[in-house]
Amino acid sequence: MRRPTLIALAAAFAGALCLFLPHGARAVTSTVIDSAVTTNSNSNNGTAFTNVFTTSSTGYAFYRDSSNNCVYSKTTDGGTTWSAAVAVGPNTTCIRVAVWYDRWTPGNSTGTYVHIATIDSRNDDLWYDRLDTSNDTLTSIVDISAASQGGTFTAGATVDALTEGTNGRLYAGVYNSADSYVLSCSTNCTTTSTWLEVGTSTTWGTNANDWMILNPLPSGNILNIRFVIASNLLESKVWHVASSTWDAGWATIDSNCPPNTTYDGHFGTAVNHSTNFIYMASACNVATLSAGTGAIRTWTYSPASSTWTRDSDVETSSTLGLTGAKIGLDLNTGNVYVVYSGRTTPGTANTANVYYKISTSTSMSAWGARQGPVNQTTTNIYGARIDGMSQYRLYATWVDVNADSLNGTTITVFTPNTFTEAGYRVFQDLDGTQVGTPFDTQNATSLVPLAGKPFRLRVLVSVAGTGIDISGQSFKLQYATSTAGGCDTGFSGETYADVGTATSSAVSFYNNPTPANGAALTANAQDPTDGTNVIDNETYIEQNPFSNDTAKIFANQDGKWDFSLINNSGSAGQTFCFRVVKGDGSLLDSYTNVVETQVDAAPTVTNVSLNHGASITLIEGTTTTIVATGTVTDSNGSADIYSITGVAYRTSLGPNCAADNNNCYIGSGSNCAIDSCAGNSCTVECDYPLWYFAQPTDSGTPWAGDSWSTLIDATDTVGTGAVATSSGVPLLSLLAFETTSTINYGSFITGQSMSTLTATATIKATGNTSMNVRVYGTNMTSGSFSIPVGQQHFATASVPYASGTTLLANPGSTVAINLPKPTSTAVAQTSAFYWGIAIPSGQMATTYTGGNSFVGVVNSLPWP
What we know:
By secondary structure, the protein is mainly β.
């Protein structure tokens, strides 16, 4: 019969009764599931799961009742009330029950069966039946060991194990001092003959009443964990389904974990569905219960490397006398729960309670504070269990030996996860895990490039509820064509398809050369945000499906993914919608923002001119600013015109010329600008500072017949560009030079002459032509006295006076100095003239001055 749970409260004064709870604790509300269970306490221990919650409200507890049969009780209100017991065992000598729920096996998300393995002491056999939770029907129980296996089963010694492989095959087994075995069945498992032994008695070595746990591994393989009681040893080996063989030897997990044989089977495991890791917890150093000695150790098994890793202890040198440990997993977040029992006075049986701790680390690297007790009455506790893997509720049960009752309480309830497409932004593509310039503001209709060009889309998916573990949810990206403003959250009028990798589709994933699909994305300051939610940076994606493979996403956080995409055939103005769906194609729970993009329309450039179409006249010795202008029009609006660049160049070189101050000037953001805009058009301008030596194109020059032109290149916000060039205009010759202002001959006596021409005057070219000079002079005079012009001689080198050229009066003589056209400001083009004079005899002694002139003459072709 059931005993109602009563809580009596009394107060010695009038007024309200207040219950204050410490931070992180909760009121104890444990429930009596069955008030009369077996008095054989050892039957309540074991390694296997005995609790199953199929929804947040519906659960099953399996146990041995007061009739000594194995039974289950059901709740439909989350454990508040429980039904009458329903038999699942073979008879009233059923001594232990183990269960495995379909959905505890990775990859099975729809199964409804609870598989049940029981052992009895009358036949010493292993039995199987199955509960269909969709309608609570039980199959007929079948003896699966029958006469084929031996052994003697007792409640205080024999522990059975059960699991389901990822290929759907069932496995059940025991270790026994007379016969140890594992049986397997793939179909028709309610028939004895379909259960066959995998391996032989020699597989296990020495037969002993040890403790077994079976767990599913990838590819249908099975992990068998053995607690060798006599050796204080935890070890494992793998059943390889492809070769139908067990590992030849055992892998040591822990070589020094002394057990307690009163509280049998005080260890347990759980399977992470995302990583396939096996988590295990065990009480160790508990052969004798005493304070400061016991521990609860944890380990992780990696199927990929077939190795065990020792993780952080749940309890170390515990003050409790530890009597059991079981491990459970939140399938949503991957958080690990360990439920354990322990005596507050280690030597006193009736001082036990049930506690738990939580690790949010997938490697169990740290544990939170001890929680509990979760039981209302401190008592002698056997068989503390937890339903191992759940996305709904983790529920603990235990037997109060003094009251002979099965009790239970909820450890935690997981709020179902909901997913929302919360935000997005479209970016320029870069060959890496970083993105370029955003094409528009967050959650706005964004332009994407014309056909043949890639782009990047970063999307946020927010999670509400409990959260999801690493790789805990699979998603896909889909797209549809629509019209402007048509990408609605109800998807009315759109037909969505998965984004693929085939370039034959309008949009596909784009394979950048450098980053690999699934690489961790690099966050950008301009990434989309979602209010105050924490953003978990996930991965760079080049193919469907994808998952949160980088980080857990907890409640009220957003995962962010970076999609590399390419427009294969969308024409200008075409609208594409994008949405994220679950991996099975079902919609997310809501869509705050559906991605809407529009294929860019290329801008056009018209009315391009250089120097307003006039001939270019330079200024000697410096730069002359000439202006290139044009009109840029963009049907997406003038705001879409993003940048202007240009080139001013000698026409025959073409606009792809290399920058050269003689013939090619590059315009960029520093000297090109958008001047004014109206409607869809803007006037643009590039200013070019042409140096005085820029190559002329008028007659008599090496570039006669050529001209100067300009190109204007306009780019919009998504990088689509358009160019146009101007008509050519002449760049005129600039014959210019500068020279020394004074020739100082010094002082002489009458009849004296310079033996060598040493006075100098230098000519420096400051224009854009090669040149010669015409030289002439005047008599040097002082009042009425004069020295004839011919008394001065000159040359282009320092020669004897007699060898110099006689200076003539205007028009003088032309000197072929062949001064080259300047090509830079760094190297001056100069020519030196050397001068000398002879003073006639009897010349009046006084100071004489005169004027000598240089007149530039454009050199004839070819120029040096």
